[in-house]
Specification:
By secondary structure, the chain is an alpha+beta fold. Helices cover 32% and strands 26% of the residues. It is built from 10 helices and 13 strands. Bound molecules: adenosine-5'-diphosphate (ADP) and magnesium ion.
């Protein structure tokens, strides 16, 4: 197929990411051999990105390499896990060395920052698609779940919501988003440090990939409870706030911020934690008895969202 599949793997993927002493054998054999530390739980997650669905086929390959790892790391962040190992299944329409070099550079830089080693994968010819599995480590029994929310918990989110959807909206209109806004779509930052700091502190946590309403809805369903949001408390871009249209911060995808619930008595810790992490952390509502997610306007009226969130199998 290629120059040789094996030349490609050796050239671009054999030494990507962090070097770790717990990787006994990395890329090149039938399996990687890893040695998890005793007493730790393994957190494992997979995400696939398909050209034309999750990204524009002509997107900068360096940004794509970053993003496809970032969305996987975001799942580790949501559990409070520390990244350890990754594998990469790549389907490519053709060999394009400039593309592969850019992709590997974007993937490799983020992997080094996150301390994750690429230990294996698969390389085939086909429509452009990227499937990554990540594994992380957690102190035994401590992983942050969706199901742990309790009535009266404070609902909090990191960063700003709706930026990625706003950038996508502008691109779809043929506009050029400001570089910082475009980066929120193309180079999301997985909130790994925050997730780890929430261990033993938050009752429940999820990363926001399909929009706040949809993802907070998962916490509510898993916990058997309801949520009430105060819309004016949502952290979002000034132009979104001014528009009075809440659909992007509520239902836009690709934010990769964390939504977590805190016992009310821990609320006072939020500003200090935000300062320590250099990341805004906003209280946006409360967990209540009941079901579903309700949104309140500043004047106390209920707001009816137009759409709930992104779902691949829903028209
Ligand atoms: P096998 O035929 O035994 O499944 P492969 O020929 O598919 O092995 O892959 C050879 C080695 O290269 C394996 O160690 C595999 O994990 C690794 N590998 C293949 N593709 C990638 C990739 N895109 N990124 C990282 N490692 C890869
Ligand atoms: Mg084999």
């Amino acid at each position: 197929m290629f120059d040789s599949e094996f030349d490609l793997i050796a050239r671009y993927f054999s030494h990507l990411g962090a070097s770790r002493s717990d990787v006994l054998l990395g890329v090149g054999d039938d399996c990687a051999l890893l040695r998890p530390p005793p007493g730790m739980d393994l957190a494992l997650s997979t995400d696939t990105l398909v050209a034309g669905c999750h990204f524009f086929a002509d997107v900068d390959p360096e940004a794509l390499g970053h993003k496809c790892l970032a969305v996987n790391l975001s799942d580790l962040a949501a559990m409070g896990a520390t990244p350890a190992w990754a594998s990469l299944a790549l389907s490519l329409p053709a060999v394009d060395h400039a593309w592969l070099q850019g992709f590997a550079a974007g993937f490799g830089r983020l992997a080094e920052q996150a301390g994750i080693a690429l230990v294996g994968g698969d390389t085939t010819r086909g429509p452009l698609s990227i499937s990554i599995q990540v594994q992380g480590l957690l102190p035994a029994g401590q992983g942050l779940r969706r199901s742990g929310a309790q009535a009266e918990d404070l609902i909090c989110v990191s960063g700003r919501l709706g930026d990625a959807a706003l950038a996508l909206h502008q691109l779809q209109q043929g506009l050029e988003p400001e570089p910082a806004l475009r980066a929120r779509l193309e180079r999301p930052s997985p909130r790994l440090q925050l997730g780890q700091r929430l261990l033993g502190l938050a009752h429940a946590c999820i990363d926001i990939s399909d929009g706040l309403l949809a993802d907070l809805g998962h916490i509510c369903r898993a916990s058997g409870l309801a949520a009430e949001l105060q819309l004016e408390a949502l952290p979002c871009a000034p132009e979104l706030l001014a528009s009075g249209d809440w659909s992007l911060p509520l239902s836009g995808g690709d934010d990769y911020e964390l939504c977590f619930t805190l016992p009310a008595e821990q609320a006072a810790q939020l500003p200090q934690l935000a300062a320590e992490l250099g990341l805004p952390l906003s209280p946006i509502g409360r967990i209540l008895a009941g079901e579903g997610v309700a949104c309140r306007l500043a004047d106390g009226r209920l707001y009816q969202p137009k759409q709930r969130g992104f779902d691949h199998f829903h028209d």
